[in-house]
Design goal:
The complex is a heterodimer.
Chain A lengths: L2 E7 L2 E7 L6 H9 L17 E4 L2 E4 L12 E3 L12 H8 L9 H14 L6 H7 L10 H22 L1
Parallel strand pairs in A: 1-5
Antiparallel strand pairs in A: 1-2, 3-4, 3-5
Helix pairs in contact in A: 2-5
Chain B lengths: L26 H6 L14 E7 L5 E5 L2 H6 L3 E5 L29 E2 L5 E7 L2 H10 L3 E4 L10 E3 L11 E4 L2 H6 L3 E9 L11 E7 L2 E5 L5 H12 L6 E4 L15 H13 L3 E4 L15 E9 L5 E13 L21 E10 L12 H19 L3 H7 L17 H12 L11 E2 L5 E12 L5 E8 L4 E4 L9 H13 L6 E4 L16 H25 L14 E4 L2 E4 L2 E7 H8 L3 E8 L3 H6 L3 E12 L6 E11 L6 H21 L30 E5 L23 H13 L10 H5 L1
Parallel strand pairs in B: 1-13, 11-12, 15-16, 20-21, 27-28
Antiparallel strand pairs in B: 1-5, 2-4, 2-6, 3-5, 7-16, 8-16, 9-14, 10-11, 10-13, 14-15, 17-18, 18-26, 19-20, 19-25, 22-23, 23-24, 26-27
Helix pairs in contact in B: 7-15, 10-11, 14-15
The chains are: A alpha+beta, B alpha+beta.
Bound molecules: FE2/S2 (inorganic) cluster (FES) (2 copies).
């Protein structure tokens, strides 16, 4: 019997047949839906390369069974920019050289977006570093990553300030 | 004083593109997830392959439950030594210095834990994974030989790739015994695993006798030849695409067994096959940095001048192939000494074969040398920086040759000043921070050779005023696509946004190896020359054409800039590339170029990048947890093409130094020979919180000999110096000298 799940991915409602109940959300995105921007670095929750937002919260897609995301709202790196306009976190990563090989980068960016919306780290670099430590970057672009997240945080709080 | 000093260097005049801190040209692709890595490819009819890994370190596979695997739904094929097709080349052969002996299911022998012993191909990844598990291998097991004590010792004929295993100058014994101060240091370094974030991956597809491969690779044309060799087809029949590499660090330069297995499987099932290693499979068949056991002795006179320096290193390699860390050779080029000895021995153990990993030889050797140098300074009662300056090598200590350029003194000065080194108390254990943490300051000197590889490139000037530049370069994060495009733009005399830069596949001319920190120099040199040659052809056209304002200028009488040729003696007379081509009735004009170094300079000079790294550690006085609170380095590496990206390379290397000093250690069970920590929770690499303040400063350096562009590399040097600096800072905080890496809490508790 083939199950199917309904979920929203980057704002688009999908109904996906789930041929194999062992399939993770990560493999569902990459191999079935064809969204390969989310990466697999370890497949066991130890590197953060597969970070996506599930109902707005950052999670490891490799630790999430596809069968469990029925009815949820998933945002991946492909859904972050508005057309040609980059999300402020994406733009900040380019500006501050927050990556080298780029393999961990999509996960870093999704994690940063999640961190900023959690709102716990504020503009404290130490808390940002801690909050981003679930995302390994073997190229060790950490100084740039921290600078990028700080910068995006600053821009975000400024724009929130003006909109109030 | 600015952190970055930028003035032109080298004896070729580059244009305005080089030297700019441009952001990455592939930045948008990387932040939007559209950059395509090998495993992202999903051709039609794709099948997935998973290999079964040996669960013992030595012996034979006596049974595999192929039936169980085959009867699992959606499994297509199971490949074992019994049915694997013949290869054209012996996987145990070594056809050139960059080929390793690999496992391609040639027989049932197990040489290390994690070795591929069978391959399962299925419709889905899940089915292939389950199929591999169902094989349930049984073994005939021989005792594993793990560790220096249990392996088989031998004298290696070479270290690294073709490096000299022993060196001696002067009379060490006399020099040492006559020395006023004598110290010894023993330092062990463990096996380390590259662990690029992108696991090794391949998608292979046959079309008749033509093979298309998507796989990350640091040396595309070299790999093309090697793949063709194994399958008995001409190299032209192999298309290799490696547009993005998710980190290489040396592990993706040399062909490995799993790649051959996937290609074999694609032929057997007559479908495209994807094979992606699991993280635990990265701890066996895809190389690592071999463990070392090092011993140093240094003798100095009463004034702190080194009189004798000896560096012995034993390195581990596999039971069936040789890659020996040339750690002892790290002592040959750094400090002046009338007597220097370096010696290597090796031990065979039952692990996968090591290979080059970021700063091979240099990283492990420097990690030990810098501890020994610090001990020597301590014995004399001298500040570690003063001691290093006292023993500054004005010429290469090993060869006596002059350096092509050496700006280490400037590096010491700049980094020490930024760090605040002059406030350092000489004795250890003197500093505490406001939270009561023990604080220590240490330093190390950094050095890396400046090799070059043969490289080719093509430049095409087009009538629409743009240029196409091509070389098969590899961007694994160092920023090749950006820095090379900047150089290429200067070669053709165009702004970089009018350049179309094609790279990363076998369709382009051979850019050589992205390794040894020599890629920018090699491929960059080729691109620059190709561009200059194309411009030269254009100048020949214009100066011979009576209708051109440049007519009669002679082909050396023009200069290229911003897409125009100018008369050197009269700036008001110029013509655009487009107009010249148009009048000549040409759509385009192209030329080839090659990179390389004047052999006379190689003969006459010693060529290295240099640097100085200063570390601050904070250590909990009760728990001895160690934090690197500051790491500041200054580096001189010839002309810097893109300071923005160069700094990222350098800080990346320095953070690898933190990993080497405090975290990384591949542990094998002595009894079973299996890796005990084959994942990223057990094998620790630095995370963001481990690197709160890492800063790289650039010292401008004009090196007129290293190559026409004056470029050295920055990819590996950052790790050298940093490791020793951290160990020395730990001593300065606690008074404890460590004898093995990574530095564990228990080494400080004792
Ligand atoms: S792939 Fe999910 S955490 Fe590593
Ligand atoms: S950019 Fe290479 S792993 Fe982070």
């Amino acid at each position: 019997m083939t199950l199917s799940i309904s979920l929203s991915v980057n704002g688009e409602s999908l109904n996906v047949p789930l041929e194999d109940t062992r399939t993770t959300l990560l493999d569902l995105l990459r191999e079935h839906i064809g969204l390969t921007g989310t990466k697999k670095g370890c497949d066991r929750g130890q590197c953060g390369a597969c970070t996506v937002l599930l109902d707005g919260k950052r999670i490891n897609a490799c630790l999430t069974l596809a069968a469990s995301v029925d009815g949820t709202d998933v945002t991946t790196i492909e859904g972050l920019a508005q057309g040609d306009t980059l999300h402020p976190v994406q733009a900040a990563f380019i500006e501050h050289d927050g990556f080298q090989c780029g393999y961990c980068t999509t996960g870093q960016i999704m994690s940063a977006v999640g961190l900023l919306s959690e709102g716990d780290a504020g503009a404290d670099p130490e808390r940002i570093r801690e909050g981003m430590s679930g995302n390994i970057c073997r190229c060790a672009a950490y100084p740039g990553i921290t600078a990028a997240v700080l910068d995006a945080e600053r821009r975000q709080s400024e724009s929130e300030g003006t909109s109030v | 004083m600015p952190d970055t000093l930028q003035t032109p260097a080298g004896h070729v005049r580059l244009g305005s593109n080089s030297g700019q801190p441009m952001t990455r040209r592939d930045g948008i692709a990387k932040v939007t997830g559209t950059a395509t890595y090998a495993a992202d490819n999903r051709p039609d009819r794709l099948a997935h392959a998973v290999f079964a890994s040996a669960g013992i370190a030595r012996g034979r596979v006596v049974s595999l439950n192929v039936e169980a695997a085959k009867s699992h739904p959606e499994v297509i094929e199971v490949i074992t030594p019994d049915n694997r097709p013949a290869l054209h080349l012996d996987p145990d052969g070594k056809s050139h210095p960059f080929s390793w002996r690999i496992e391609a299911l040639q027989d049932n022998t197990v040489r290390y834990a994690g070795q591929p012993i069978a391959l399962v191909v299925a419709e889905t990844l899940e089915a292939a994974t389950e199929g591999a598990r169902l094989l349930a291998p049984e073994y005939d097991t021989d005792p594993a030989r793990i560790g220096f004590e249990n392996g088989e010792a031998y004298d290696p004929p070479a270290v690294g790739i073709g490096g000299n295993p022993s060196f001696s100058k002067g009379d060490f014994d006399t020099g040492f015994s006559n020395s006023e101060h004598r110290i010894g240091a023993s330092v062990d370094t463990p096996a380390q695993y590259h662990n690029a974030m992108e696991p090794h991956a391949i998608v292979a597809e046959w079309s008749g006798d033509h093979l298309t491969i998507d796989t990350p690779n640091q040396a595309i044309h070299l790999a093309r030849g090697a793949f063709a060799g194994y399958f008995g087809i001409p190299p032209e029949n192999v298309t290799l695409r490696s547009p993005f590499i998710g980190g290489g660090f040396g592990s993706k330069a040399i062909l490995v067994g799993p790649q051959i297995l996937a290609i074999m499987a694609a032929r057997m099932v007559d479908r495209p096959v994807k094979l992606v290693l699991r993280r635990d499979q990265m701890f066996g068949p895809v190389q690592h940095r071999g463990a070392t056991r090092q011993k140093l002795r240094i003798g100095t006179d009463g004034n702190g001048l080194i009189k004798a320096l000896e560096h012995e290193a034993t390195a581990s390699t596999s039971s069936f192939d040789d890659f020996i860390e040339g750690a002892g050779n790290a002592s040959l080029n750094m400090y002046a000494s009338p007597a220097i000895v370096a010696r290597h021995s090796a031990v065979r153990v039952d692990t996968g074969t090591p290979g080059p990993m970021r700063a091979p030889g240099e990283a492990s050797g420097s990690a030990a040398l810098e501890i020994a140098i610090d001990k020597a300074a301590e014995a004399v009662g001298m500040d570690p920086l003063e001691f290093r300056l006292r023993n500054y090598a004005e010429t290469d200590p090993a060869s006596g040759k002059p350096f092509s350029a050496k700006s280490l003194r400037e590096c010491y000065e700049l980094a020490a000043q930024k760090f605040g080194w002059s406030d350092r108390p000489l004795a250890p254990g003197q500093m505490r921070d406001e939270n009561g943490m023990l604080v220590g300051w240490g330093m190390g000197s950094a050095l890396f050779p400046a090799p070059m590889f043969a490289a080719q490139a093509r430049a095409t000037l087009r009538r629409d005023g743009t240029a196409l530049v091509e070389t098969s370069g590899a961007d694994m994060g160092q920023g090749a696509w950006t820095a090379l495009a900047q150089i290429a733009a200067d070669g053709v005399g165009l702004p970089v946004d009018r350049i179309e830069f094609m790279s990363g596949t076998t369709d382009q001319p051979d850019a050589g190896v992205a390794g040894g920190s020599g890629h920018t120099a090699s491929a960059g040199g080729a691109l620059f020359e190709a561009g200059s040659n194309a411009v030269q052809k254009l100048a020949d056209l214009a100066t011979a054409d009576p209708e051109s304002p440049l007519f009669g200028a002679g082909n050396t009488g023009v200069e290229a800039r911003e897409g125009r040729l100018f008369r050197a003696d009269d700036e008001s007379r110029s013509e655009s590339y487009a107009d010249i081509l148009e009048r000549a009735g040409l759509e385009r004009i192209d030329a080839m170029g090659s990179g390389g170094r004047d052999p006379a300079n190689t003969e006459a000079r010693a060529m290295f990048s240099h640097g100085a790294v200063f570390a601050e550690v904070k250590i909990d006085p009760d728990l001895f947890q160690i934090r690197v609170s500051r790491l500041i380095g200054a580096f001189a590496a010839g002309r810097i093409i893109n300071p923005h990206l160069a700094k990222s390379q350098l800080t990346g290397g320095m953070i690898w130094g933190i990993g080497f000093a405090l975290h990384e250690e591949g542990i094998h069970d002595l009894r079973s020979g299996r890796p005990l920590n084959a994942d990223l929770a057990g094998y620790h690499v630095p995370v963001n919180a481990d690197a709160p303040h890492v800063e790289a400063l650039l010292v401008d350096e004009d090196d007129p000999y290293v190559n026409a562009l004056g470029i050295k590399g920055v990819g590996e040097i950052g790790i050298t110096g940093s490791v020793g600096a951290i160990a020395n800072a730990v001593w300065h905080a606690t008074g404890k000298r460590i004898s093995s890496y990574p530095i564990h809490i228990d080494a400080l508790l004792s």
